[in-house]
Design brief:
48% of the residues are buried. Helix 11 links the parallel strand 9 (265-269) and strand 10. The protein is built from eleven helices and ten strands. The protein has a single domain, classed as Aldolase class I (TIM Barrel), CATH 3.20.20. The longest helix has 16 residues, at 205-220. Strands 1, 2, 3, 4, 5, 6, 7, 8, 9 and 10 form a ten-stranded mixed sheet that branches. The protein is α/β, with parallel strands linked by helices and 331 residues long.
Length: 331
């Protein structure tokens, strides 16, 4: 008989209720159906993933993991004191020319693993003392991740699930994650579709992105913390400030404020570095100037956002750029 943990004070993650009713298995079956002629992301490329064909993103029928570790580089409410149990998945549905994780997102560096191995990995992160299971760039593997989550939950996994995303997501697929994902951590990358296509090869990014943010907010709402200040549920939107205002930071912040209100949790990032193929674009060959990032922080304050994080620009260095070929990728 499967072991289903009882609550020890804090609310249990939603996937436990779905596991008890059999709904978690039904969700994984529906997600697998989306992968049959792949519709897991907005490209809806139609690849027969279950037969081994690779999608537009480069992913096939096996889950590929690049790194799994207690990660201390996320927002404080995600990292806490024990770290976030980050699982970095290989491949990506966008092709950002400046991606700092290009080794895994574009080149596919990683190791294929079974559902059982992934479940053991998740449970192991809990045993290490992590605060959550942080699924980084996971959309293209969600059918198998949900299967692994069911196995890990039956074994004793009780950590909330973080869905860490580039924000280019399919609403139908996201709908199947309701009650499975506790915390959504998406990007809002661009206000201009031309820049999104030029730098990330994205199609209709603004429309797709805001539809995804809407669905995530519908499911999770505003950020909720536990008694120790660690995220238990909710939406945190990230925005990376690009040099020269290329991301349309001012317009994005105004849209987020108008659409979600001042209580939206917003993470402003100033860590841009010209990684991967950024050298092909003269306007992206330098770091974000302090004055550009400072203007974004000033806008955050002027717009009246109540919840969020800003980085200390003088502390931003190349340590934010990982090397996934190393055992310790951030050193």
């Amino acid at each position: 008989m499967a072991y289903i943990p009882e609550s020890s004070g804090e609310p249990m993650p939603g996937y436990h209720a779905l596991l008890k009713t059999g709904e978690l298995d039904r969700r994984s079956e529906k997600l697998l159906a989306l992968a049959a002629a792949c519709r897991l992301c907005p490209w809806r490329c139609g690849a027969r993933r279950l037969k081994g064909e690779k999608g537009r993103c480069g992913a096939g029928s096996s889950v590929r993991v690049a790194k799994a570790l207690a990660h201390f580089g996320e927002e404080p409410v995600i990292t806490g004191t024990g770290g976030s149990g980050a699982v970095f998945f290989s491949h990506c549905n966008l092709t950002c020319c400046f991606c700092q994780n290009w080794q895994i997102s574009h080149e596919g560096l990683g190791t294929d693993m079974t559902v059982e191995q992934l479940a053991g990995l998740m449970y192991g992160l809990q045993q290490q003392g992590c605060h959550n299971i942080n699924l980084v760039s996971a959309a293209h593997f969600m059918p198998w991740i949900v299967q692994a989550l069911a196995l890990a939950a039956a074994r004793g996994l009780t950590l909330p699930v973080v869905y860490n995303s580039n924000g280019f997501e399919d609403v139908e697929m996201l709908g199947l994650l309701e009650g499975i994902v506790d915390i959504y951590l998406p990007d809002a990358k661009y206000d201009d579709d031309g820049c999104a296509e030029k730098y990330s090869k994205a199609r209709n990014y603004q429309e797709v992105n805001f539809a995804a943010l809407d669905e995530m907010f519908r499911q999770a709402g505003y950020l909720e913390l536990d008694g120790e200040g660690i995220a238990r549920k909710g939406l945190i939107v990230r925005h990376l400030v690009l040099p020269g205002g290329l991301a349309g930071t001012e317009a994005i912040l105004k849209k987020l404020k108008h659409h979600f209100g001042r209580f939206l949790s917003l993470s402003l990032m100033g860590q841009y570095r010209p990684c991967y193929n950024a050298a092909d674009f003269p306007e992206l060959q330098a770091q974000t100037p302090p004055q550009d990032y400072g203007h974004a922080v000033q806008l955050f304050d002027e717009l009246g956002f109540e919840n969020g994080w800003a980085q200390e620009h003088e502390d931003l260095d190349d340590s934010f750029v990982p090397d996934f070929r190393k055992k310790d990728s951030w050193n």
